[in-house]
Amino acid sequence: MTIKHRLMEDLKRAMKDGDKTRVSCVRMLRSRVLEREVALRPQKGAAYELEDVEALGVIATYAKQRRESIESFRRAGREDRAAQEEAELGIIEGYLPAALTEQEIVRIVREAIAESGATSARDTGKVMKLVMARVRGAADGKVVSRIVAEALR
């Protein structure tokens, strides 16, 4: 089942259950995925639909935005809004693959370094491109960047 199909089925189920939070959140996810598809159609054709990997990237970006919102609300003393955002983040994260541990990221970085032939910090871009393609949605880019920098010292 594709991510888009799963989102549609989950939306139907949430509407039947009367779960307003889930309905709102899944609608927003579907909207973000559709926006990305529409943005890519001039380049890829009028009937283009996102592949699951691309849809996961959209969802991961949305989850990151929610995490940043939670931090902002907490700094502003808006614990009620932070709690609401956390509830929605939990729903969003249900669509993402399980987060990778730091050890798993280190292993993937080492493989990418070997594959790309990287030898110095100048090769960071090559390594990051390979690693991010493999960990999309399962690892934060900041963590990956830090591990790549440490590995290329």
Task: Chart the SSEs and their pairings.
Blueprint: H1 3-17, H2 20-44, H3 52-75, H4 79-93, H5 102-116, H6 124-135, H7 141-151
Helix pairs in contact: 1-2, 2-3, 2-4, 3-4, 5-6, 5-7, 6-7
Short description:
This protein has 7 helices and no strands.
The percent range for strand residues is under 5%
Tell me the CATH architecture of the largest domain. Answer: Orthogonal Bundle
Provide the residue-averaged pLDDT.
90
Low-confidence stretches: none
CATH C-level label of the largest domain: Mainly Alpha
Largest sheet: none
Under CATH, the topology of the largest domain can be stated as Hypothetical Protein Yqey, Chain: A, domain1
Number of helical stretches of at least 4 residues: 7
Q: Helix/strand/pairing class, anyone?
A: mainly alpha
Secondary-structure element order, as H and E?
Answer: HHHHHHH
How many distinct folded domains?
2
Q: What distance lies between the first and last C-alpha atoms, to the nearest angstrom?
A: 42 Å
Shape call? globular
Please tell me how large the radius of gyration is. 18 Å
Number of strands: 0
